[in-house]
Structure formats: structure tokens, C-alpha cells
Amino acid sequence: MLLWLAALCVAAYSVQAMLPRIAPDTVRAAQQTAGQVDGLVGGWRNVTPQEAATVIGQRANDEAFMVLDVRTPGEFSEGHLQGARNIDFTSPEFRDRVRSLNRNRTYLVYCRSGNRSGKALEVFRELGFTSILHMDGGTLAWNAAGLPLEK
């Protein structure tokens, strides 16, 4: 058994040594070209409010990126993240509105605390969305970080 394991390790090392090395800048450029962000390749990732603010700043004019606020319209009107669109998670039309979104975009999803947006992610998964950023702590964490909201 030990000999078999050693042979497997040598084989794995040999295969890895034969693979071409790809520069990190090349990988990052490919991700950005594909409408993705650092650390997110066709998947899901939680981000801090500071990370969310950075992504929003970098991708403000990017058609392949959208910020979604899943709070109620009343909460949204009191203040929201820059460029956010409101799709109320508690609305009976929530699933249909999400279904109408472009699945090829990257979405930054948030709510007040992270609870509703966490539940909303399940709908996104069920509907086949593959590139989602979820802001941990919602607008409560955003405000605690001293970041501005727009009205």
C-alpha cells in the first residue's frame, strides 16, 4: 500500500511539472474578460462591505455586472448601494423577476443583514445563475464600515 501511494505521488508530481505555468496576470485578465471578479470563477463568494465597495467602484460601468438589493422598496428608498436595482425578496414576483435576469452577468446581492439575501441566493442557484457575490452583513455592516449609501 505504501509503495502504491509513493508511486501515485511521483506520478502526480510528474504531471504537474509538465503542465504549463500560467501567470497570475493572465488568469486575472481572463476572469475580467469573462465578466468575473478576483476570487470568483463561475461560482459564489461572500464579500465584505469593503470588498463590495471596491468591486462596485471598479465595475460601475460594466454591463456584465449588476448590484441587486433584495430589500423592500421602502428600505431601498431610504438608501442603497451605488447603482443598485431593487428586487424585493418578499414580493410574490421575486422568482419571476430573477428568472428574467441575464444569467451571464455577475451579481452582487445584498439586503439589510444578509438573511434575506442569503435566502435569495437559493433562488439564484435553482434558476441556474453561476456568478454571484453575496455581501456579508448587508447594509448594517456597510453602515458600520462607514460607507455611503445613495438615495
Automatic annotation (TrEMBL):
Keywords: Signal. Residues 1-17 form the signal peptide. The keyword Signal applies. It comes from the Bacteria. Residues 61-151 form the Rhodanese domain. This is Rhodanese domain protein.
